[in-house]
Amino acid sequence: MAPSMRYLIVRALLFIVPFAVLMIAKVPWWLSMIVALVFAFAASIVFFSQLRDAAAADVQRMREGRRRAGAGPDDADVEDAALGEPEVTDGTDDPDASARR
């Protein structure tokens, strides 16, 4: 599982568990939400810094176009191979192209 997905799951659980416990204890929903948010934020900062750093690196790697190990082929590459060559546009689909001519 990708580090960014693990971090998302951990953060969600850090919120859901205290929120559920406080709701069972009959604490008002708005106070339960505030306490659960503060708890999730503090716990993720203090205890999960390595996971947060790994998730940040994973997101950065995805944004830069590098794929994770074991990832399948990129959709654009598969589509280009099926068409035979990449699509080349002449700018006619650009609404501002006529204003620049």
TrEMBL record:
Pfam families: DUF4229. It comes from Agrococcus baldri. Residues 74-101 have a biased composition (Acidic residues). Residues 62-101 are annotated as: Disordered. This is DUF4229 domain-containing protein. The keyword Membrane applies. Keywords: Membrane, Transmembrane, Transmembrane helix. The chain crosses the membrane at residues 7-25, 31-51. Signal peptide: none annotated.
